[in-house]
Amino acid sequence: MSDSEWITELINDTDTTMSEKQRKILEAAIDTFSEKGYAGSSTSEIAKKAGVAEGTIFRHYKTKKDLLLSIVTPTIARFAAPFFIKTFTKEVFENEYEHYEDFLRVIAKNRLEFVRKHFPILKIFIQEIAFHDELREPFQQLFTEHVYQKFKKIIEHFQEKGEIIDLPPETIMRMSASSIIGYILPRFLLFPEKEWDDDKEIDQLVEFILYGLSGKR
Amino acid sequence: MSDSEWITELINDTDTTMSEKQRKILEAAIDTFSEKGYAGSSTSEIAKKAGVAEGTIFRHYKTKKDLLLSIVTPTIARFAAPFFIKTFTKEVFENEYEHYEDFLRVIAKNRLEFVRKHFPILKIFIQEIAFHDELREPFQQLFTEHVYQKFKKIIEHFQEKGEIIDLPPETIMRMSASSIIGYILPRFLLFPEKEWDDDKEIDQLVEFILYGLSGKR
Amino acid sequence: MSDSEWITELINDTDTTMSEKQRKILEAAIDTFSEKGYAGSSTSEIAKKAGVAEGTIFRHYKTKKDLLLSIVTPTIARFAAPFFIKTFTKEVFENEYEHYEDFLRVIAKNRLEFVRKHFPILKIFIQEIAFHDELREPFQQLFTEHVYQKFKKIIEHFQEKGEIIDLPPETIMRMSASSIIGYILPRFLLFPEKEWDDDKEIDQLVEFILYGLSGKR
Amino acid sequence: MSDSEWITELINDTDTTMSEKQRKILEAAIDTFSEKGYAGSSTSEIAKKAGVAEGTIFRHYKTKKDLLLSIVTPTIARFAAPFFIKTFTKEVFENEYEHYEDFLRVIAKNRLEFVRKHFPILKIFIQEIAFHDELREPFQQLFTEHVYQKFKKIIEHFQEKGEIIDLPPETIMRMSASSIIGYILPRFLLFPEKEWDDDKEIDQLVEFILYGLSGKR
DNA sequence: TATGAATGAGCATTCATTCAT
DNA sequence: AATGAATGAATGCTCATTCAT
């Protein structure tokens, strides 16, 4: 399976062939891994929560790590999907987003939406990426080859237009991303129960980034 | 032991009473927890790495979790130390930092220095805080009662002076902090082997935050 | 089913009613048991090797042990077949073999041939007879009631003719058999890849036994 | 540890450093492996029989296979010990044994004695050698480099003296050995409860081999 | 104080067998 | 007849913790 096929397959979320039991197992595993971490979760606990025999887990997933990857891999691929490079012509960016602000706002909103829907899985990913080469390596590659490259082109495009300051693209990227992530983490991880006005917050966030990065000083 | 005694004790780095073996155990545990996570590390592995018998660990630390807390707690307390409220009068802030920029730069530089020295322990903290009430609760308290309160006063002080925009202090705080953390994490966690010019990067960072938060728009 | 019916059925190699799948299962099981031993083989491995579903094995053989017996029993019965007593009159022996040498040579040659054809199954038998009463008991009976009795009569016959020394028949039997087996085991089990000149070796073997057992000393 | 050191260590049966529990574990393991085979024995069963916790087994023997090797290896080495080549001069053989008969009788008697003492372990060896490379390889080497070489020299020595027939030494060896083994196996494995007059049987055995191999025909 | 043998609950995984389809 | 999902007991092994020395 080639790289792009793999991506295509991951993004089209066609888990249509999953049995009832399999779905229950995945749900229980997401729950448990998310709450206690991978190493802190036992397959027997997951089986009990899923209402299946322990052996059933291993009929569907060869190992516990296999179960982890089956949970995390497709979701992360889909999280990164918007950054996939499909075309390299400048026109596309110009058509896609007239201003850096547009790009930022769109990304912030739809990735926030994605996080809202899939936070437990993303949390597992964040927790476990440090400990599993099988997780780190493919996503490091995915990031450097797709996300980073596309993001960079977008930044350079708007730097040429004079919209954003002339710092190294990865610095711009880091500042933009960390601001957004710096909203997402408290929002979902630390104080999820607080009432958040996402739209207003994102507006402030975008404005903060834009002024911070504006060339006019 | 009252709350403040506890804090005092933690900050004064009184590791003077530690035996050679104890120090070796701590070192080995930091190494191991940092590399494999708490649940993924075994006490026997730590004992072997420390060159002591398995039982020796439990002579010094009642349980494995005790060992974790002994590692993480004092370092985190010291990480937060600069934000401790010792005085509540406005004069102090004015003397301490003339501009928000000064405050930001000082904090960024010395907390970065602290991270450089203690990154493995901080990494353990970040990884494990989600899974252990014994970690989360005291530091949530420490944060809301000290760090947050002091940070808020500082922000309000500079908002009154018109230096920074009139958003809710916690929004300001989040934006400031996440920008700095957004530098620290790639810097130490993702690409530690890259060559970083910390001084230049921090200057850019501070500038980014200041412009982003400046009231003049 | 009476004892003699059982024997008759086993000897007539009526595997005619076996389906394709059943044959594949038997083949795979022989392969696997022979290579890893009964307890070291799993039914799932056998199923995979046979290209059938796990359940299919249990449709044909109630249990794993049933499968073992189905493999081993008929082949061992046929291995012992030449020793079955069909008649008890002396004349038969005299007609069958003029000298002990003839008997020895014929037995050695055709049992060697049999071993060549069925070695994997015989190996399973040798390995497993120690652990399964269901194997040991019928074949102990078969041996003491048929093989031993007929062998004994033959030996006594040639002792009367003065061809072989006057030791207890079972001693003669043991010496004859162990010499032959002592060729077969290295030949097939230890060094099967060596080049063996079976005819010459058997000639030497028969001579060795004959001289060893000859009464003229 | 060099080859010869290894041998020396194995032969000197210095299990002096074994704790009570360790001894109990070995005994129970020998019992169980001997009765049910390696694959058919469970560590929990062995632990129960030894009166220790299951974990205790694994403190002394890293794996179940380690336990097997710890049982079998030293005993087999000691079984082969009499065949170790210590000297290569002809004089030694002449002093050691005046006739092939002497050699045969001594070997038969003392190896029989050894088997009597260690039969359960030897049985385990015989059963398991087919399935474990870790067993087969070192003993194949030990056999071809020591036992076979010394045996061959002895045979050639007596062939030169005209005592035994001029067949290939390995044929002589096979016939001698299989005759002896052909006594040992029924003696201990098949009918251990029968009353055996070992001395008389060995005399007959030696005579059988000698006449069988005698050159005078 | 330090040891390391001993524990037994718990772990991920495999097993032979069943049964609805 | 054949499947393969499902089972849950059993497996080899690891774990944090205890305790006699």
UniProtKB/TrEMBL annotation, chains A, B, C, D:
Organism, scientific name: Fictibacillus barbaricus
Keywords tagged on the record: DNA-binding
Gene3D superfamilies attached to this UniProt entry: Homeodomain-like, Tetracycline Repressor, domain 2
DNA-binding residues: 42-61
Lineage: Bacteria, Bacillati, Bacillota, Bacilli, Bacillales
PANTHER family: ACREF/ENVCD OPERON REPRESSOR-RELATED, ACREF_ENVCD OPERON REPRESSOR-RELATED
Limits of the HTH tetR-type domain: 19-79
The protein's name: TetR/AcrR family transcriptional regulator
UniProt key word Coiled coil: no
